[in-house]
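User: Predict the complex with 9YT.
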Amino acid sequence: MLVKSLEDVIGTEDVTSTENWSSRRLLLAKDKMGFSLHDTIIRAGTETHIWYKNHLEAVYCIEGNGEIETVADGKVYPIKAGTVYALDQHDEHYLRGGTEDMRMVCVFNAPLTGKETHDENGVYPLLTE
Ligand code: 9YT
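Assistant: Here is the predicted structure with 9YT placed in the model:
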């Protein structure tokens, strides 16, 4: 069995940060679970264009507020603690932090390796271990 805590991950290569967000990866492809599990902070007042063409992602907000806009139809969904969204159509979207940072629990299938970087369209390549 694998047991670890957020404190074990902070300060390691399993944290990836940009100006808009910081993602602490609790489980990655190397853990062989078939998904990755992230504790991600989305900064207040930021907007990030994301399009996970190669991955499915579910995101559960546990703190803060913000919104998500789906590009295809321009719909805007408010996000607060207790909101979950699932990008079941590989939905291209804008993720916006609100008046406070949002803390999100994110699950990716296929699992991220931790080496991916967003391209200019917010896409992660499909990498394997
Ligand atoms: C919620 C979301 O998709 N944030 C972008 C970062 C992503 N969770 C990651 O790479 O860990």
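The pocket of 9YT is lined by residues 21, 23, 38, 40, 50, 57, 59, 95, 104, 106 (CB under 6 Å).
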